[in-house]
Each structure stands twice: as C-alpha cells, then as structure tokens.
Structure prediction request, 1022 residues.
Amino acid sequence: MIRNPGRGQMRLAVGFCALVATMFSVVFWSEGTVDAATAAANGAEPEYASPLELLFSPQGERIYVLCNESDEVRVLDAATYAPIKSVAVGHQPRGFSLSPDGTRLYVANSWDDTVSVIDTRTLEVMATWPVGAEPSGVAEGPKGDYVFVANRISSDIAVLDALTGVEEKRLMAGRGASYLTLSPDGKRIYVTHIYPNPPALRTGLENRTPPESEITVIDAQRATVVDRIPLPSIAGVFHLAFSNDGRLGAVAEYHPKNLIPLAHLEHGGAFAYTLTVFGADVGQPVEIPLDELDRYASQPFGVTIAPDGSRLYVSLGGSESVLAIDVPRLLHFVHSRPRPVSGSFAQDLSASGNYVVARIPVGHNPRGLALSNDGHRLFVANRLDDTISVIDTSKLRVAATIALEGPRAVSALRRGEQTFYSAHYSFQGQISCSSCHIDSTFDGLQWNLEPNGFGRDIVDNKLLEGIKDTAPYKWNGANPDIGTECGPRTEKYFWRSENYDDRTLTDLVTYIRSLPARPNRWHLPGSELTPAQERGKAIFERAVDKFKKPIPETNRCSTCHSGPLGTNRKLFDVGTKRATDNPGLLKAPQLTNIGLTAPYLHDGSARSLEEIWTIYNPDDKHGRTNDLTKDELNDLIEYLRTR
Amino acid sequence: MKRFINKKWLAMALVVGAVFAAAERRGFAQEAKHHFRGALLASMVPEMPRFRFENFTTANGLPNNHVFAVLVDGGRIWAGTDNGLGLYENGKWKIYTTADGLAHRAVLSLALDKRTGDVWAGTMGGLSRISGGRIDSFTQLSSGLSNNIVYGISIEGENVWIATAAGACRLDLHTNQWSLYNERNTPMAEIWSYAVSATPTKVYYGIWGSGVLEYDQKTGQWDKYDDPDGETEMVLFKDQGLIHEIVTSVSYIEKDKVLWAATYFGDSHYDGRYWHNFLVKDSGLPSNFTNQVKGVDGKRAWFCTDKGLAYYDGVNWAVYTRSLTTHKPVMTVRDAKGIVTEIPVTSGPAHNYILGIDFQGDDIWVATAEGLSHGILQR
Prediction:
C-alpha cells in the first residue's frame, strides 16, 4: 500500500509523543491512560495493518494479506514480497477465502456485516453483499453455486447465492461461528466456533459442567448440516486444516480447566492447548496436547498441513511462535497409545514430545498461516507487528521477515495490545488476557479465581468492550480501577510469575480502556426501536407496577442500570447470593451488548436473559418483574438487547 | 359396516356369489378367492389408493407405541411418541430422549424446516430443535416461548410458528425474537392453541374453543372464523361456516387458497368464500372426532380420526381401519352417491385411533395410539 509520507511522519511524531506521555504517566498511570485513549479516539493512533490471515493464489505467484485494522487486502508478489496492490474492503475484515477457481476473493467484514467480493484479475471490489451479524469466515462451495458465511454473533452460516449474494438460508452452527474449511474433495464444509455451546438442558449446575463445542459439518452441495463432531471440554475453536488426501483433519482449540481453582496454574490448571485430529488416518476423533512439560503452546490459532502430509504447523497466538509437528509420529502416537475413554490426551503433558519437532519463534500474536505450493515456505501473519515471518520448512527457522508498509513506531496502545495477547508473563507461558477474553471479548465460561477461597465466588467472565467508564471492576466491585484489576490482582491470582513493569501495565490499561463496543445488532445506529423494544423500554423505565403500586426507586431497572452504559456502578443485593459466595453485594453490571454475553448473573447460573427473572428473581429483588406477563417479559428482553 | 344395497348391487352380489361357489367347488384356495372377489368389486368402485401396511411398535424398535406425530424427511421418518423421539433410517431406529437434550419425553408435534433440514419437536415440556444430531431446547423459563406444552409447529421461511397451551407464538430465527399472540393482541377468546399451518401469505391457528385464527403476513392483521351457530352439540345450518369451535388441526393449501380444518365435531373446507363441512352423516368420515387433517391440495385431504384414517379425493372417500370386533383390517370406499363398498385388504393401520399422517411419495406414514404404520401404495 502506498502511503502519504507526510502522514507517516506525523504518525511517527504522534507515536513518539504517545511514548513520552506514557513514560510520564508511570506514576499517574490512570490519568495517562485517559490521554492515550483519547488520542486514539481522536484518530491520532498510527494506522496499523494488523495482518490476520494469509492466502496464496492458486498458482502461488501472489500472497493475499488480510489486514484487520486498516480494512484492506494487500497483495504481495510471492517471490519478491513486493507490494502489488491494496484493495480497500469493509470494516474489521476477519476472514477471507478464494473461490475454487481462484477468480474471486471473498472477504468477511466483521463490523459492517458485509462480504466484499474481489475480482482477482483486476484486484477491484466487484460487489459488496450484506450478510448476517459479524461475518467472520467465508468459503465458496465447490460448484460455485453457494457462498457460505460464518456469522459470529448470530452463530450461524449464511448460505448465499454465489452469483447475486442473496441470502437463501441460514444453518445453525456452534456459538460464535467463525472459521470455515472446504474439504479437499469439495463435498463438505467444516465450521468451527469460538464460544462454547450452551448446555442442552437445565441441570442447575450449568456453570460447573465442562464446556462443549463442535465442528459443524455441512453438505456443500445441498447446503444442509449433516453432522456435528463433538468437541467435549473445549471452548474456543479456531482454524481447521486437512491433508491434501483428506484423510487427516486437525483443528486448533482451547481446553479450559475452569472447573478447578485457578490457583493450580502452576500445576497446569488453567488451560490445555490442543488439536483434535480426525479422519480416516485417525479413526475416532482424538484430542492431542500441544503443550510441553514446562512450556505451554498458548492460544493455537492457525493450522496447515504440508502438501506431502509430512508436517503439520500450528501458530500460537499467545506463545508468539509456530509449532512444527511430525505427522507420521503423531499418527504413531495416536495409534500406539491406549486411547483414554474420553478420547483426550490433553492431560498428558509429556505427549507432545512424541510429535512436536520444533517451536519456531515469530512475531507478536501470530495468526494466519499459508504454505507455498511446494511446501518449502511457511508464511505467518504476525498481527501485532505488521510483519510476515517466512519460515524455511526444511530448516524450521525464520528465513525472512516481511515488513508490511506502514508505521514502524509501536504506540502505547499497540504495546498494550501486545501485552494483552502475550502469554509471556504467566507461569510457563500458559495464559494471557486473551486466553479468556478471546479476541478481546469474553469466553462464555465461569471461573474460580479463588481470591476468597477455593470453590468460592465462582464468577462469569465479562465482556471487555466499552468498560473504561464502568469502575469499579469485578463482580463484587473490589477493584477501583483497571490498573488494580489488571496489575497486582492479575499478577497474584493469574500469572503466578512475572509482574508487569509500570509502563507495561500502563500500556495494557490504555489498550483495555480503548476497546470500543461493537455495533449493537438489535439496534443499529440511526434505527428506530421496534414496537416490542419500545414496550420493553417503558417497562425498563417504569416507576409503577401493573397493580398501580409505586416501585421503590432501588427496585427499578432504570436505577441500577442507569445511564448510557446501563450501570450506576453501585453495589446491590439482587437475591442471587449462593452458599459459595462470600459477598452478597454485587456491582450493577453494564448492559453493553448484553444480548451477546450469555450466560448471565455473576456466576453464570442464568442460561438466558429470561432465566434471570423466570428462575432467579422469586422475591422481586432483582427489579420488580413478577407482575409481568410472559409477553411483557419478552418485550423487556427485546429492549435490553438494544443496550 | 354400513352397506347400501340397491338392485344393481344385489344382482352383482349374486353373480359374484355364483362365481365364488363355482370356484370353491373347483377347489380354489381361499386366498385366491379373496383376491378374485376384490378384483371384481374393484372394477365397479372408484379407484382409491390401497396400501399394504407395515406396522412398527416397541417390538421392532419404536421408542413407544403411543405415537403423537409423524414426519417424513426424505428417507428418514421421525416419530414423536409418548416416550421419546424416534428416527427411522436405513432400517434402524435411533431414539432421542431428554438425556440427549430433548425438552420432554412426550413429543406431541413435529415440523421440518425444508431449507435447512432441521427438525422441530413440540413436547410436553418445551420446544426442541434437532439439527445435525444436536438438540437445543427452548422452554417457557429459558426462552420467550409462551408455554411448555407445544401442540403444533409450522415453519415458514425464517419463522417458527408455534401453538401452545397458553397462546400462539413465533420465533424469528434471524433475530431470535419471540412474538407472543394471545387474548391481548388477537381475537383469540381462548388461548389453548392446538395447531398451526403457516405459509408466506397466511398463517392459520386452530384454537381449542376459539375457532380458527388467520394471520395475514402482508398486513400483520388477525382475523377469526367461528362456528356461526355457536352451538357445541349441533349444527343448525350446514356449510354456514366453521363446523365447530373446538379446532384440533388446520392445513392451509396456499396454491389453492384452501383451508382444511378439523374439529372434534366434524371437519371443514374453506376456499376463501364458501365453507363446506363434513360430518359422518353426510360424508365418508368414519368419525366426527378428528385429530388431524392434512390437505393434499384444495380438493384432497386425509383425516385422522378416532375410528380410523380417511382419505377424500374431492368426490369419493376411502377409510382405512380395523374391525372393532375382529380387529381385522378393513378398507371401505364411499362413492359420490354414498355407496359404500368394502375392499378386501390384508393389512391396516396399527390402531384405529389415528393421530397424525405424513406423505412419502405415494406412501403414507400414520401415527396411531398403538404404533406407527407405513402404508405402502399398491399399484
């Protein structure tokens, strides 16, 4: 991409100023972060590319680079790495793929709910199609009749007419559907998702049962779901790859251990990072760990298998490296070891020594992978460095690093984001903020952080978007600011290892405070409330119940959930205290994009918004709601989703 | 069995009797005689579909013999029973229970989303979606569903229309919004909703004690069809309007703009202008007590009654049942003149109490109180 040098110099200057400002803010970090965040909001933040995904053209002469923050696809010469062109696409593109004949490049633009269709001959956008909520992955079917789009928010697959882009139907996928892979024979499309599926039935122990995920298998010709491969104990599933012969499939995933106290981080207690391998070469799907005894393979994301099937590569977003796995050794391990009843070797930290042959350091937050057609070069998108590492697969080391055009200075915000995604600080490199706040959001899980004792105060993970003005933090309001939340408490209870220095913490806080709320899909900017939402708003704001009795101010929705963020930031007892909870008082949580963040209540015991009131509000302590009819409660929920 | 005998039929019976007597003297096998008589009679009665019934019970894999609903999905047959959801595929039954996520063991209604292949099951404890083997359930506590007793489901586009014991509702699969319809926002006098039939233009609800509700998709307006005489035990004026207020089933044929409605006191046909009603006394219905009606088109329909299965081709009736005394299968055909003829058959539905029907090409699948029946068309 050709940039205006004047603008580049300006960004450098701004970056330098931000750096200085950040250094001065070490003591008064809270105020300093306000400045930095404001600067970012004013557009002074350097415009990074943030390469997220990579693709080779069918003949291998080009590399397509999906740039998540600069909203473009950059096209590079695969031999010289020289830029060929930059193609502007929609906002926050998250996934892309080529049509089977290579003539079209589809780009899923996650924040404006569109797919850009790029003509690869002219490198021009030939169409922009509206799709579902937060498209994150896209793939064209083998016959060129359908385009499949994974919608993260609506957790489904939109099936589009490949000629017109008109949506024909949607297929239910896993929660947070994001990544699509066409099988080598073109018959099936495999879809993964980043949040765990909701429990099928109410048991009363939803927040204490292992998470479950799936690989959704779609018949690519009929465009119907034909199978769902269960992924037990998995929450967070990313890219999936096949060997060229289709006999081996592998998917990158997180295996959280959220049912035990996080104190056991030093005992391997927070996460296992694994692959589930499946296919004819494997038999029944089996989960194999990537972690080593004293070094974790934090946050696997991209997966690719060498053309000759000899090697499998996995990018580790948190460990800032790429793993090389010897496939024959992996298969030997799978077939020679007695298979656990669970089908999982995740608890065996010695297992990876049998098949991991190299761990290759790359840049910050490596994500997408692309192998050259001959399998000799592996390209790695270092999202938070604006670089691409080129790994010589014969030597298993980085042979070159391609710096994408753009600002080279690393801003405070960018440093903070690097810290957010790096597992460097935690014991044995197990976790980072992004292990639980996937893509800076949440994970849909409940954790025992154990500051108040083992097995006590189980808490639901919360969305980070738009939290900068919602202090105090934590469900019990124990942390007066993000610095306390992310600094001493995190270091003590999460990392069990290295503390942040002051600047690192300040940068991290700056980044977290900068996270905006994504567009609300139930109430897009400029749109009117629907009649149901209007009725719900009236219920939310009412001061008198249906029996004409005044509702005490402290028992109105609009009191505790007041203001634009939906919180007055005070502590209340809403009658949800459990026997395992120490405090009964909870901070009124903000309502930002609350429609996305099930389950609900401080411990995640309410599977849906409805259950907050149908099950957990028998005494009207969580607002006066027991006078409402079912349709009125539905209206209230329709309104809440607009917040 | 009713039999109307006139001179023509008497003469024919004598001929047939003579032929049988001769055949018997010559030592024909009883089976051959049976077929011979059938062939003779068949040449004189309207041609109506004949089936060889294969019946499924718990003895050959059905989860429970009380089958509330049946659904055909290509080569796959779903049976909603009193104790689980059965899927018959490739000659084997797979059973889904609450352990798999089904909302309740008793499955009352079934619907297929033809676009996605998902199957929706209405149960005594909520609504379940079965998709690629995964079951997600919705209840009145966990979702916007109005009531857990789900008697009817119909899929139209992105909308799932649901009939529950406490009103009607619609789930928009795009927005996940639940819309509830009851006495507060429709002309529904009672909220006990028994059945729904949804199309892109009209949605019809059968309401227990409140007639038929019609929702116009274009205008968003509700209309209502009641029994005009208001009498529960009699019909003052035939074809004046809906036959009875207690509506158990509706089936709207959009291409012909015809509504079929079933009640426990007879059945109705409505073409948008005229009503035509069916009672035992003036039609081929074996009983006025009808659990389900399923239209084939504007003229043809199947009726599931407590005394057998009936088919109406617009002129003639066929009834598939079993003798109450011998339990032997019986098929009768009633022509336009009201002449009823027994057709020799060797098999019949598993039980006379018929709860549901669905079509698999020319074959039928029938839900009964004592098993599931596969009616294989005989050519």
